[in-house]
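ASSEMBLY PREDICTION REQUEST
Request ID: AP-0331
Submitted by: J.K., bench scientist
Number of chains: two
Total residues: 669
Priority: normal
Notes: Please return the full assembly, not individual chains.
Input sequences:
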Amino acid sequence: MLIDFFLHLKANKLPVSIKEFLALLEGLQKHVIEHSLDDFYRLSRAILVKDETHFDKFDRAFGEYFKGVEALPGMDALIPEEWLRQAVKKHLTDAERAKLEKLGWDKLMETFKQRLAEQKERHSGGSKWIGSGGSSPFGHGGTHPEGIRVGGKSENRSAVKVWEKREYRNLDDSVELGTRNIKIALRRLRRFARQGAAEELDLEGTIAGTARNAGWLDLQLRPERHNAVKVLLFLDIGGSMDDHVRVCEELFSACHSEFKHLEYYYFHNCVYEYLWQDNRRRHSERIDTHDVLHKYGNDYKLIFVGDAAMSPYELLQPWGSVEYNNAEPGATWLRRLTGTWPHAIWLNPESEHAWQYRQSTSLIHNLMGGRMFPLTLDGLARGMRLLSK
Amino acid sequence: MRFAGSETYVTTADLTLAVNAAVTLQRPLLIKGEPGTGKTMLAEEVAASLGLPLFQWHIKSTTKAQQGLYEYDAVSRLRDSQLGEAKVADIGSYIVKGVLWQAFECETPSVVLIDEIDKADIEFPNDLLRELDRMEFFVYETRQNVRARHRPAVFITSNNEKELPDAFLRRCFFHYIKFPDKETMTRIVDVHFPGLKPALLREALEVFFELREIPGLKKKPSTSELLDWLKLLLAEDIPPEALRSKDHKTAIPPMHGALLKNEQDVHLFERLIFMARQNR
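STATUS: Completed
Returned structure:
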């Protein structure tokens, strides 16, 4: 049964390994938990899932697999509490356990109802009737591998509620970003995280130190200098982006504390010959895009943030912009920008599935050479990985 | 040996189970969670309640995995050789034992805390795989194999600044300390301030959770901030009524500096209050 559970998790794209699965079995063998689904849920989560971003996925997979095992509305009320009192626990050997008849779910329910009708008095320790401590599939504290738990002490909230509440939903890495998770992804950009903080010999310090030390050698070490990443951030603002402005601002505020060299510019829909740095004064303080192109070296990494939703004319035709008359089409400007800064990605707050249905989005996707990523933690991670190559 | 919370530390059922599973199966337990939810405290409390010695290893960005095992102090050996000291011949006297070695040598079972492992270099966890798995390592300088007498219970905390390698994660158990709900929070406060007036506590918690709901805060106040704030409220002897004026949306709670640590957050908060007043 548990092998199926393991494969079910695997099929739900949880990164579980055989080593962890064996650890879970070891835990069951050593009686870390009592026979309760709540505890099994907790134990398997602690052992199998190593990242809170997978908790939600795990909750769903677990709920799917154990659906019906716990939730039997009305059943509790039908059975007198007395029958279920914790009684003698009959310990089965593995061989005995294997011999236990494994009933299918439907048949199990049917038999359960049947037994319920037949049963008239308290029962404990046997192998057919509902009660406690036995090996019948019904009751609690028993050892039947596919049993239904009825009543029994649950010291905490009902188990099903824990995973059905989906409390960890907002920790899943495929949902939209908040300030907390965006920082993690952006940190990947900091190169020194990969290079490590190695120490190197400080030659001048060593000479000075040795001299001060009356000629005895005095070695001085210093941490390697970290290389700061330079980033150009182009934010789409206004129009169809208004929904996403909040997400973008979070991205922006997270960026600001991450890099020493960060320059940001706003554009609307697509980049043309003017950009601006203060959105309130976008009409009075425009900056020529040519100036920006010449100002920053090609070691800057370029990040666009925009939904790439616009009329295709804005990209393909001169004079196509909705705002003003542009002499050259947007596509020309995009090629120019990615030509100047080859390390470029486009982050799109729209869901990845929707991209193919928008003409302009797939156009930009092609113009960027496929380097468009959704504005989720996962998309951001992929983008950052590409940028730091 | 079972851990079930302590007089000064409130645990949830998830956490107790994770701790007990890790202790029983002798696997390291990786703890994550919001800052200030008691990740570091956990190891101390487990050690105290099980009556085991605690070895702490606080990680910095320059910490090397090797330093937890041992360090060969080559520089002082070089210096000693120039001074012509006799102990130079014995390389063993220049081996400085690290935290893990001390724990491995311990006569009784012990608890090891590796605090904020994500601060270190990305290769750091990978360098500790064998040590944490087999609980043994080899000292090259003295050609000696150090093996743990009792496998220590290892607690590792992380603030999620870097992702940890898969191979490392597979060897650990994992628990994410969720931010406590109101009931758990009441229990936590109870443990720290036993005599707190219920009225004050209720009002304070309400203000606290409301504050956490404000969108856009850079650093949401957490458990440790709440405890600090309560300490201040008690010290100043502020009555419960002061926390909740007739329309609470328009009053700034006293001593809010203890809850909001970021200037921008305080600013944002005050602006919201100001806006609420105008809309009255």
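REVIEWER COMMENTS: The CA atoms of residues 14 and 57 of chain A lie 7 Å apart.
SIGN-OFF: pending second reviewer
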